[in-house]
Amino acid sequence: MGSIEFFIVALNLIIVFVAYLSVYPKLAGNSFNRISFYDIFASGLALIIVGSTYWDTGQEFNLIVGQVNWFWFTLITYGLIEIPVMVWYFKKNKVKIKIKTEQKH
């Protein structure tokens, strides 16, 4: 992994850990809907920061299984970092995922 990929992974780590250790406990608690809402901004922040540097450059990033552009590298590595942290947070805070189904009468 080159220094560019390392920077993006480090950025994703920082954003995920700040979100789950500081922001989400204060603003979202154990509400799945609030966590999801704030996570759009957290992941979007990573995409904006990386995109502001690599948009339209044609730069390719090594994702082990192949070369991808900045968007997919950032999004996939963000997801891979976030999933175990999210599972830990959900268990620790007893977050319940409620799926509302439409009832017909």
TrEMBL record:
Keywords: Membrane, Transmembrane, Transmembrane helix
Transmembrane segments annotated in the record for this chain: 6-23, 35-55, 70-90
Protein name stated in the entry: Uncharacterized protein
Organism for this UniProt entry: Thalassotalea piscium
